[in-house]
């Protein structure tokens, strides 16, 4: 029997999908990339913005037809939208077989076993074969939930309060992923650097994970500026396995907006934090999340967000249009006109693209180390995606000369040893133009 998984939302959801996939494999199922082959269709939903939820629900609507095409097919809906709208889902889509909210994900294995009417046994666990997409670079969830209450955000209500996994459990999971072939571990949590368990804090966990045999790279997402302590920065700078790249959501460049969002830092604190980090880790890349059109955002507030993008010189980022979420404090505030939000979104994206391209173009001619994740595709320690010309296998680390940095994915050719025609030609043209 085969299963197919469709995941919406953030890395936490991707990690949850992987975990649920492992449980299904333990029940003897095999993952497929083709829904037509599948007997079980799992939709892992997101509800962070209305758009995310709408996309998942229209997919579920289409599955009515998929289900009737073959007897015995089952549909499982999980995740954050399932948590928020469980009754509505069951009403609107009576053909669903199982709905599991994000807070109950830990009960998934038992529920799935019941649905499939099989018992999990150790023997069956041997069936668990990691899927290709998370083999080299694996996610490990270190905490669930969020204790913050950013006024726009639905996550705390659908994921609950923070629960931390123990250091032993996390290290055990890291070892499992390494045994399956992982070389890079990304630790996950909504405010991942607020981690604490017993006497351990996030910095000790980072060190512990970096010290596991076979781990070449460590990343984490999403840290909150408030918990970005000196100790964490020092650890990042000192421990070679921890990559010099950070996704640090800022949301807005206006202190008035930050206060109304209840983000718990000011623009100045954010800027001095990233300056400190860049001093400790020269060459560090920085990305962010920004919300435009939060209720009450004036033209002047918006300009402050634009000026922050120039000041912080982000390497890339996500710009979101504010979306009111029922039950959050901001949902009762008056929304800005949609056209204005669209316009600000466009302007913000254009500026971010320009700043990011300026930074990217400086990479041409450099020779970063790339961890190959799929044939001809890998990432630098700074988290730039690179399309590689040359013969490489997943899991290898190679030095790559960057030849083009126009688009989000850089182009590069393998340095040394493996001289390919293309990097030969590249060297040749550089010599002719006198560059480098
Ligand atoms: N825990 C992470 C972010 C989780 S949600 C953190 O705090 O950094 C991912 C991103 O979605 C947020 O950073 C925010 O930019 C965006 N977001 C969350 N709620 C939103 C909403 N109601 N409207 C628009 N964007 C939102
Ligand atoms: Fe949402 Fe804020 Fe928690 Fe992030 S820190 S998940 S934005 S409440
Ligand atoms: Fe979406 Fe849930 Fe992540 S709401 S962004 S999948 S925590």
By DSSP (H or I, 4+ residues per run), the number of helices equals 14
Question: Approximately what portion of the residues adopt beta-strand conformation?
Answer: 15-25%
- Mind describing the biggest β-sheet? 5 strands, parallel
The portion of residues assigned to helices is 25-40%
Report, as a whole number of angstroms, the end-to-end distance: 57 Å
* Total count of domains: 4
* Overall pLDDT confidence: 91
Q: Per the principal axes of the C-alpha atoms, what is the gross shape?
A: globular
Descriptive overview:
The protein is of the alpha/beta class and 436 residues long. It folds into four domains: 2-127, Rossmann fold (3-Layer(aba) Sandwich); 134-243, Transcription Regulator spoIIAA, CATH 3.30.750.210; 250-263 and 270-361, Transcription Regulator spoIIAA (2-Layer Sandwich); 369-433, Beta Barrel (OB fold (Dihydrolipoamide Acetyltransferase, E2P)). Helix content is 39%, strand content 21%. The chain has 14 helices and 20 strands. It has helices at residues 11-26, 50-68, 80-92, 108-116, 122-125, 155-159, 167-179, 202-210, 230-238, 255-261, 267-280, 299-312, 338-361, 421-433; strands at 2-7, 30-31, 40-45, 74-79, 98-101, 137-141, 143-144, 163-164, 184-188, 196-197, 200-201, 217-221, 245-247, 285-292, 316-321, 369-374, 377-380, 385-389, 397-404, 410-414. The strands form six sheets. The protein has a five-stranded parallel beta sheet, with helices on both faces. A five-stranded mixed beta barrel has the order 16-17-18-20-19. Strand 16 (369-374) and strand 17 (377-380) form a beta hairpin. Helix 8 (202-210) runs parallel beside helix 9 (230-238) and helix 12 packs parallel to helix 13. It starts with a strand and ends with a helix.
